[in-house]
Specification:
The complex is a heterodimer. Chain A is of the alpha+beta class. Chain A has helices spanning 3-55, 123-171, 188-237, 244-274, 286-296, 298-303, 322-338, 368-371, 388-398; strands spanning 63-64, 70-75, 82-91, 96-109, 112-121, 282-285, 307-312, 317-320, 345-351, 354-359, 401-408, 411-418. In chain A, helix 1 (3-55) packs antiparallel against helix 2 (123-171), helix 4 packs parallel to helix 9 (388-398) and helix 7 (322-338) runs antiparallel to helix 9. Chain B has 2 domains: 2-121, Response regulator (Rossmann fold, 3-Layer(aba) Sandwich), CATH 3.40.50; 127-222, Arc Repressor Mutant, subunit A (Orthogonal Bundle), CATH 1.10.10.10. In chain B, the strands form 4 sheets. Chain B has a 5-stranded parallel β-sheet with strand order 2-1-3-6-7, with helices on both faces. Chain B has a 4-stranded antiparallel β-sheet with strand order 8-9-10-11, covered by helices on one side. A 3-stranded antiparallel β-sheet of chain B has the order 12-14-13. The chains are: A alpha+beta, B alpha/beta. The interface between A and B is large, with 48 and 46 residues.
Chain lengths: 420, 225
């Protein structure tokens, strides 16, 4: 969810809650105020009536005001009370029952006792309350909408520099030489963030360069002595006067040196892939690549009497460095060859944006979790250094391709598929 | 044939020179870019082996210079940096070949010979060994006057052996010569053995003698008078 959407949702929910609570409180407050109003009105009428009754304009009979709001009745004995109550009464004008507040009290003047009933219609109050609520509702909507719009505008305005920094970061590739540039935003926090990012990127960049140099230097420094050992041993092996035993010893040393140098190369390759030092990506036709590699290695397949079938249903294009593509296919094919048995089969199938290399071999599913790990040798085959598949895996990872393994119908399948 | 070896590692340089001198080449050497430049300006060579990572600069600069003064000289880059950029820029500058350290000496030797064949004789020179005639350009082999049918690998194998006559060729160097990086892929030594068996059979069938000898545990030797 985008930050703005998240803030908007929270904002709306909060506003809704606040307005609801405020609405409820307001409702009761208005009710209370209206009640008091009515009470005061009734009380002032009561005072007026009592005053007038005491002044002497004595009534011997009952009295009803024309609008039915005052009833005065003469009473025989004196009793003292004052009661507020709510009642419904039929209203002529509205032609329906409407709520009234009723004040019943007694008043005395000399020996005359009266019971007075005062009625005050609550209809106006109800109307008033409705009016206020409609107004409030409208206000609520208006405030919400305007706050929402203002908020959104302010948000995009305030976060614009952040989004800019984000896009700079997105387009930045540390293996490319240029350093990223951030504009000054005028907002302290963002400027600080940008400064920090700039420094961090600078640091990453220098670290990367140092690492890259180290990798290359390590390669150079290790390969040179290895080259010397190897060539010296090769020269000694030329000497036909050596005894078989001496030959055997030197041959063993020679083989180990070769293994060591291959291992060194493979590890360097892995770190180079991980450091993304292979740039220069191209769209590569994998069908063609696989076919050309198979052709190049045809005699290896022939010698093991392996039947190689290629079925192409669809063009498969992956974008990557051409050398890496070749290493990837080489490793997968050599894996399919190495772990195959004589008279086995290799089947390559190109489907829609995926390519599967299947081979016969051990009649048992391999442990898929450990398969792509370094030095994960499932079967010890002398010449394998256990890095072939992890190199393939790293190449795929660096190029957004999924490399997966499954085992069906006695075939081991390795699938290359574009990450979605 | 005169060869200049520009390599700062004296131990490696010595072995290279020792192997190449055994092949009848006349070798000179330079241990730095400066002395390499000097030698290149003063003398003419048929082939130059140049290391890219020299202590006083990149061997790549020497290549462009050499192309200017002696364009006919063959150039092979030997480098510990298996970096594609170097390889591409080196070949772009006019180098003929690129070998990554550590390489097999027979491989270097066969590359030099192949380069010299291409440069000096436009590839038309035949390799003649007793009654065996090899035409590298046409990829043909004759026993006497009779054409021998060889597969691509068998032909490469034969040429590799004849380029390194009398040398012990290890299984490793043979496999690497035939399949490059793929050499350690599969049971390549068995494959070397089968290829060689087929090649020997084809040669002896046509009444060429069996030139190949086993060297215990190591590899094979191509022996000819």
């Amino acid at each position: 969810m985008r930050l703005q959407a998240k803030i908007n949702v929270r904002f709306l929910v909060l506003m809704f809650l606040i307005f609801s609570v405020a609405g409820v409180v307001f409702y009761y407050m208005i009710g209370e105020v209206a009640n008091r109003n009515v009470r005061e009105m009734l009380e002032s009428r009561r005072a007026y009536i009592i005053l007038n009754l005491q002044k002497g304009s004595l009534l011997t009979d009952s009295f009803s005001s024309p609008d039915n709001s005052i009833f005065i009745r003469h009473m025989d004995q004196s009793r003292q009370y004052r009661i507020y109550s709510d009642t419904l009464a039929y209203d002529q004008a509205e032609k329906e029952l409407i709520p009234f507040r009723k004040l019943t009290f007694t008043a005395s003047s000399g020996n005359h006792h009266y019971k007075v009933v005062l009625l005050q219609s609550l209809l106006e109050m109800e109307d008033f309350r409705m009016l206020i609520f409609t107004f409030l509702g409208g206000l609520f909507l208006f405030v919400m909408t305007s706050l929402f719009l203002v908020n959104s505008w302010l948000f995009s305005k305030a976060w614009n520099p952040f989004l800019k920094s984000l896009s700079v970061l997105n387009s930045w590739n540390f293996s490319e030489g240029k350093s990223a540039h951030f504009d000054t935003t005028g907002i302290d926090e963002f400027d600080q963030l940008n400064d920090l990012l700039q420094n961090m990127m600078q640091k990453i960049r220098t670290d990367f360069v140092i690492l890259k140099e180290f990798t290359e230097n390590a390669s150079h420094e290790l390969q040179t002595p290895l080259a010397i050992i190897k060539s010296k041993l090769e020269l000694i092996l030329q000497d036909r006067s050596l005894s078989d035993e001496q030959h055997r010893q030197i041959q063993a040393a020679f083989e180990s040196t070769i293994r060591l140098s291959k291992l060194n190369e493979a590890l360097l390759l892995l770190s180079k892939i991980e450091n993304q030092q292979f740039v220069g990506q191209k769209e590569i036709d994998f069908c063609q690549l696989v076919q050309s590699r198979i052709e190049y290695l045809s005699d290896l397949f022939d010698l093991k009497k392996i039947d190689v079938t290629v079925q192409i249903d669809s063009l498969v294009l992956f974008t990557m460095n051409p050398l890496l593509a070749e290493i990837l296919i080489n490793n997968l094919l050599s894996n399919a060859l190495r772990h195959n048995h004589e008279n086995g089969r290799i089947f390559v199938h190109a489907g829609y944006q995926e390519i599967t290399i299947s081979n016969t071999g051990k009649n048992q599913e391999l442990d898929a979790s450990g398969l792509f790990r370094r030095f994960a040798k499932q079967v010890s085959t002398g010449e394998s250094n256990g890095l072939g598949l992890s190199i393939a895996f790293e190449i795929c990872k660096a190029n957004h391709i999924l490399l997966s393994y499954h085992y069906t119908d006695g075939m081991h399948h390795f699938v290359l598929k574009q990450e979605s | 044939m005169k060869i200049l070896v520009i390599e700062d590692e004296s131990a490696l340089r010595e072995t290279i020179i020792s192997y190449l001198e055994g092949e009848g080449f006349l070798c000179e050497y330079a241990g730095s870019l400066e002395s390499g430049n000097e030698k290149v300006c003063l003398y003419e060579y048929d082939c130059i082996l140049v290391d890219i990572g020299l202590p006083d600069g990149s061997g790549l600069t020497l290549i462009s210079k050499l192309k200017e003064f002696h364009p006919e000289t063959g150039i092979i880059i030997i480098s510990a940096k298996n970096s594609i950029d170097d390889k591409i820029s080196g070949l772009d500058l006019g180098a003929d070949d690129y070998l990554t350290k550590p390489f097999h000496l027979p491989e270097l030797n066969s590359r030099i010979k192949s380069l010299l064949r291409r440069r000096k004789f436009e590839g038309k020179q035949a390799v003649v060994i007793e009654n065996l005639t090899i035409l590298p350009e046409n990829r043909q082999v004759f026993v006497g006057n009779e054409l021998l049918q060889l597969t691509k690998s068998e032909f490469d194998l034969l040429l590799f052996f004849t380029s390194n006559r009398g040398r012990v060729l290890s299984k490793e160097s043979i496999a690497e010569h035939l399949w490059g990086d793929f050499a350690d892929a599969a049971d390549s030594f068995d494959f070397v053995y089968s290829h060689l068996k087929n090649l020997r059979r084809k040669l002896t069938e046509k009444a060429a003698k069996d030139y190949f000898q086993n060297v215990y545990g190591t590899g094979y030797v191509f022996m000819a008078e």
